[in-house]
Here is the input.
Amino acid sequence: MNPPLAERLRPSNLDDYIGQTHIVGQGAIIRRMIESGRVASFILWGPPGVGKTTLARIIASEVKAPFYTLSAVNSGVKEVRDVLERCRHDAMSMFAGGRPILFIDEIHRFSKNQQDSLLGAVENGTVTLIGATTENPSFEVIRPLLSRAQVYTLEPLSNADLDVLLQRALTTDRVLSARRVRVDSTEALFRFAGGDARKLLNILDLLEQSTPDGEEIVIDDKAVTERLQRNPAAYDKNGELHYDIISAFIKSVRGSDPDAAIYWLARMIEGGEEPEFIARRLAILAAEDIGLANPNALLLANATFDIIHKIGWPEGRIPLAECTIYLATSPKSNSAYMAIDTALQLVRDTGAPPVPLHLRNAPTKLMKQLGYGADYKYAHAYPGHFVKQQFMPDALQGTRLWTPADNPAEQRSAELQRQRWGGDKPLGE
Here is the structure.
């Protein structure tokens, strides 16, 4: 029996690895680590099917290091300690090659105790840790471990990347290359793959297996759509459809459709989605899409995240539903989201202009003599707890980063700002 196409086509070296050129391309950080033979601990963060596990295996092969894997789904503290003991033995062996690499898939599922058990081995160099996660490490990985492992973000494969993968599958795979294949269109194939290499290869597997021997395999939008509608789980064996459903859920809440939002919530619950995943997305939605139009939304989302940890399933569905409907029916604003992204771009474009002297901290006598903190006006000493003074760097005076949205809450804030600053700092115009 043939292994799946995704396994048959798994690359074994960097030259065959598709995508992620920002970290593995010529001169990029991971390629430089491999070429130097010194691999530091890091965590790969990205959606399914973008090459996290494959990249870890390639790195171990290229630097000729012992390679150990753990899955956070079925490994406890004991399994972690057993593997670390084998790694210590390899690290002391003159025949072991490079420093052992410990690859932990779905590291976001490790408990705090499990993650704590890794710290010593990573700190003293017993192992090089490579973690893989589909969840934001800032929320799921303990701070001491994050401080010891750089995070590299992997992106969904582009259509150009998927096309390279398609051509490689058709020309080099022993099964597909022996069949007659006609490619008429790829829009549906790439759309259903959604930047996921494994999905694309699983769809090709489905097309090949459902086409009788001797018949030509046709790849076009109609064939792909029909086959997937008849067999919707064929390209979703590992639960990856949740990325499509969470996208529909987010867009329904953002679009103020509570009925659609509840429907997609039910799809996730019925499909066994983790409640923390849903609650985390609601918290992000509350900040990104409701924002200052209704700041209470973030408080409710945070309370929802907290309560599901306390009550679990099935009762947890109720606060999730309450929060979903509240966010969907709430007024919307992305002004805070836009403001921070605009500010981040400004920082990247302008570098680090000096902090005005009157805003600087002056903990020493020398700093005071140099004028640090001089002429700063303490707002609470003035009527209305406000006084005009410069807060931006000199080169950025007059720059406006927050543009209030047209909802009552932000318009009230904007009017207050106009009263305070007058024409010096116009808002929303």
Remarks:
- The first strand starts at residue 42 and ends at 45.
- DSSP finds 20 helices and seven strands in the chain.
